[in-house]
Amino acid sequence: MTDKQHLNVHLRALAFGGDAVGKTPEGLTVFVPYGAPGDEVAVEVTERRKNFLRGRLVRVVKPSAQRILPPCTYFGHCGGCQLQHLDYAAQLQQKKRFVEDALRRIGKVENVKVCDVVGMANPWAYRSKATFVFGSLPPLSSAGGEGSGGGFFAAGSHEVVDIAECLIQHPVNNQILAAVKECVAGGLLSVFNPRTGRGVLRWVEARVNGAGTQAVVTLVTTAQRWKTERACAARLRERVPQLSGVLRRVAQRHDAPTEDVQRTSQVISGQPYLHEELAGLRWRVHADSFFQVNAQQSEVLAATVMAYAHLHGHETVVDAFCGVGVFALLAARAGCKVYGIDSSPLSIADAEFNAAALPAASAHFICDHVERALPRLRSQGVHPDVLLLDPPRSGAKEAMPEIIALRPHRIVYVSCDPTTLARDVSALRAHGYEVKEVQPIDLFPQTYHVECVALVER
Fold it and tell me: Is pTM beyond 0.85 here?
């Protein structure tokens, strides 16, 4: 113990989620946010459990060689990033550990080759999509309107951290945030106050293409219309010339920015989509459709998926959770017969539009939940050689029985959560599949998140 009953802890690694992990002299595990492997720190215990403690970092007694000064002034308060205090090479090392640990501990997979994480030359200003939350602020910290502000939630809470610039966002998204705040300050848009029930704006979804030439913004509101909405849209497009569309979507009372609410947005001004360039093709992407948030690393991801798929042009391929059709159409371009499945009508509409640019390709798209579409394909005699699988963060648990029944020879599983990847490959291994190799790719620098591509075969 140190002064004021603080624990003195040596931190040895990071846990998935970003907390550093150490042990007390008695051998009890301690989780410490914003610690670095190799740090010696003074920790105030904030939570006691039977087998572990959680603590607040009070002071770095002896810093790790991996520790650096975070460049963002909001780091440690804003909940968007967890690893800015770590040297980037150390971030990549820890993310590889996350994947290895999840496969071993949850998936019971031993001796699988996990490749080094593919990082970025410049791990900043990469995010093409942002969700900026708006709400009330303490009187002394308000900006962007009286008593209100916009940015991100504080770590572990729904307190709004008002920001001027996010260093991992594409600069155009930061311009959109500033323009929305200007509309609030100018009376063209009011921020919703849950205590009074008054106001319009709840959060903002900004999306820009990788080239920075087109953007769309969705204002998520409490009202279907407000009297100054067209003037607000005009101001936004004047301040951000790249904006090709301004949209509105009404949030239900229970909705939250972290939820995937599949509700169609309405156009106030312009068009509801933008165009991306990826793998030598042009893709239409609606504001409400799924597309990876890191354009540069998406090229690496697509190349890795195609390399693991190892297509010769005669295979039948099913792309489950296909989004706007990226992997499906790359397989179709290679000459394969492809079936793409997604539950989002807008994503399927984008996929069909994108497929029209490849008239010689054989691709059929199905708008349905994967677990319902797969048995229909099987009843129609579709027996895929390769299954491309890119589920949401929750994984493919619901679809796993149908995937197993379909019996593809090869599965290329793209995952943004090593823990659900490990759970799902464990289910596959019980039916004769083996994980051959995993390639982690850093699509989310400065955060604990890591994308993985796993090659699974039977």
Answer: yes
